[in-house]
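Task: fold both queries, return tokens.
Query 1:
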Amino acid sequence: MSSLGETLKGTSISSDAVKSLAIEKLKRILGDKGFTDDGNEMTPFLTEWRGFYSGDALLIVFPENVQMVSSIIKICAEADISIVPQGGNTSMCGGAVPSSDGNSIVLSMSKMNNILSIDTTNYTMTVEAGCILKNIQEAAEAEDRYFPLSLAAEGSCMIGGNLATNAGGTNVLRYGNARELVLGLEVVLPDGRILDQLTGLRKDNTGYDLKQLFLGSEGTLGIITKAVLKLFPTPKSINAAYCAVPSISAALELLESARVESGDSVETFELISRQVLDLVLKHIPDTRDPLNAPFEYYVLLEIVSTKHNDDQAKQNFENMLEKALESEVILDAAIAQTEQQRQEFWALRENATESQKLEGASIKHDVSVPISSIPKFYDAAWKAILKVEPEARLVAFGHAGDGNLHFNVAEPENSPSSDFLAKWTDINHAVHEVVKDFNGSISAEHGIGQLKREELPHYKSQTAIDVMRIIKSALDPKGIMNPGKVI
């Protein structure tokens, strides 16, 4: 395949003409089913699922293998066409849609969706980046193995996007973020070269751990095309309880007790405020309060065992809850007796975001602080919000077991949404300044994308920003990889 440079050697041609030739070349190598430039077909790829961000693109491309990705990037690099990698387009920060300048192509990974191998002895699975997360979970389950990354969008999000954003989810406490579930990667660099590090090794000290550059980089340094994922023994027994606690401090006491008493087998520890529960009960059909009386805070707690019908684990679980009840660390609790009851507990947590949407406008914060700081952060951030909007409603929930809270603010009742949303910047600033005071992060699991790009320099040291820019410049000197995101 001749390059554009060879094709145009000795000619004088405008940049627009170069781009037009590049687009035509992409169409030829991709074939009729490998791209779309139809406006209606392009629209879903150009708009963020929440509708906050939208852009424009020259083309949407659907490569089927890594060699095709490499060819696409080489052509775009020569023509100075930007590339926006996209998985399931479930980004919460506008990281997977192009800008409005129309100088990009969107590279969808949807056709690279094969599970390539499962090594049950090595506890690994090798997958292409376009695999739906749910399909990966089910493929592992079919081999009596477990892939623990679990997100609300797991039925549509793709593993490449999960890795590019270092996704978190509900099981981080036990298994870690997405980057901790990866042993090897295949990545196409911004000049089209293929970096093959598809290793299933757990120990490899031969130089820099290059895969870590791309995990969490949001497609700004290269395109993840394949990954070797860690698998785990399948949980066979899950003990779940929906617990009322008198305070957030008490919730953390419960966490400590559960970790110690279970031999550190806590998989889920989700904090849910009463405001969240009320909204779910109001807007989501077939949901019910598991307890007979209302309480201010709740915890969804799960402890797992790899043994079938683990009676001892169940007894330890119940004993631990009984002790917590006696010491008033918990005020009441419902223990799931069936899988259906467990799923009913989960419905109260998983519908938190949807119920907020149905209630009206909200301003969301995906933040993390040290677990020990959660109670003081919670109080300080709420006071800071009330100074900006005294009638605001706090809709807080999240992964308290790893310090990640979705500290969301709902519009006042009987007040125009426009008035509330006009305070977006001030409320964000109020919360993020408190996060900074507690040495936390303004993005725990959703990434930076477009949403927090301008804020990042304020909450990251100048030295850290400089190093990030040096890495970006070294790998992507033309700045064609997902421009306008992260830095």
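Query 1 returned. Query 2:
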Amino acid sequence: AALSTAAGLLLVISAAVSHDLLKKTFRPQISERGELLAARAAAAAAIVVAGYLGINPPGFVAQVVALAFGLAAASLFPAILMGIFFKDMNREGATAGMLAGLVFTLGYIVWFKSGWFGASDTPSGWLFGISPEGAGSLGMLLNFAVAAAVARFTARTPDDVRAMVDAIRTPKGAGAATGH
């Protein structure tokens, strides 16, 4: 079960990097062969990182899960929530917020968990007394703030995207509400 899960995640990582990130964002003209090579390189990099973290785990299983959820909370959750409920959210705001939350949270975790920078993983050194396992909450707040600010000062969300979000919010086939 663990191997099949790892294999599935490895495929997702390689496809996300090669197709979604590289082909759709940075190099749309890339050939299929180049995309395949990028997928293989991304898979190899993911294996190296996973192997290193398997040999030198940053903590017990519960701590590692908390760190992973903190990274997701700091990067993905605000973008999803604001994409649904904040009509003025745009690509630039969501991207900037996700990067700010991810970089802050990852930096906070590495700063205290790695010991590379002389920081000790003790409550006396933590920002606002928040442990690295809980740093995702700070990263999430930073993500919300940066995303809203960037969205406010960049191009307006296209009308077709706003219409699509409105269509997603409206239930279909329910009919008109009556007799309340």
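Both queries returned. Flag for query 2: The radius of gyration is 20 Å.
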